[in-house]
Amino acid sequence: SILLEILLQTPSPVFSAPWNYTVTGMAVTDTTDVSGGNLLGSGGDEITYGANWPFTCSVFGDTLTTGHVLSMNSNGFFRFDAFISLGARFGSIPTSNPLYGTFLSYGGNTDGATSTNVQTIISGTAPNRVWIWKFGYRTHLQDANAYKATVEVRFYENTQQIRLLFYNTSGSQHPANHIGINAGDGIFGSYLGYFPAQDTCFLFTPGV
């Protein structure tokens, strides 16, 4: 990865946050087999992945439909309100910097890379579907001792919850900080600290 990454964005919905997420940490109790799912791309450095939402989802109170693309990059970010090209580093959560917008950071603010294929799969049937993204991640591209994990992100149609899982964790170098979720308004968001050193799950429940 290059030291200073550039974030490119395309026209997208304007997000304003009427509520925040409640975040609950918990143990990882189950994982998903994504074989037979949708392959978005191989692992590597400076890669962008994207897929259209399979159902309507509200993120910080703003509605995303099947016409919107959820994008992810290999530097540690999902972005909800624009298409993300390369990673962008930021100083804190929450932030209102328009370069970063509304995002979920699973490994941000580090020189990381995806280490396996990025795949998605949909489980269940409407209105109780779950859209699942799964991939391997390491917090530094060139260090074999970097923190690493299988990352799984689940989006729930019925409850509108988001679940972020880290498992098969290992490594001891280059801890990624600024894990969390951000509305983009400088008010709402949750900072979850460093990349986990042990298997961990975070459940994001929408406010009211």
Layout of helices and strands, plus pairs?
Layout: E1 21-26, E2 38-41, E3 48-52, E4 57-59, E5 62-64, E6 69-73, E7 77-79, E8 103-105, E9 113-114, E10 118-123, E11 130-138, E12 148-156, E13 162-170, E14 179-182, E15 189-193, E16 200-206
What's the quick description here?
It is built from no helices and 16 strands. The protein is mostly beta strands and 208 residues long.
Question: Which terms would index this structure?
Answer:
208 residues, mainly beta, 8-stranded antiparallel beta sheet, 6-stranded antiparallel beta sheet, 16 strands
Let me know the largest β-sheet: 8 strands, antiparallel
Low-pLDDT parts are: 1-14
Q: What general form does the structure show?
A: globular
The helix/strand order is EEEEEEEEEEEEEEEE
Helix tally equals: 0
> Percent of residues in helical segments?
under 10%
The tally of beta strands, per DSSP, is: 16
Instruction: Determine the N-to-C terminus distance.
Output: 39 Å
Rg is: 15 Å
SSE-based structural type: mainly beta
Strand share of the residues?
A: 35-45%
- Quick check: average pLDDT? 89
Write up this protein.
The structure is a single chain. The protein is an all-beta fold and 208 residues long. It is built from no helices and 16 strands. Strands 1, 2, 9, 10, 11, 12, 13 and 16 form an eight-stranded antiparallel β-sheet that branches. The chain has a six-stranded antiparallel β-sheet with strand order 3-6-7-8-14-15, with no helix packed on it. A two-stranded antiparallel sheet has the order 4-5. Strand 4 (57-59) and strand 5 (62-64) form a beta hairpin. It is globular, with a radius of gyration of 15 Å. The termini are far apart. The relative contact order is 0.24. Residues 1-14 have low confidence and may be disordered.
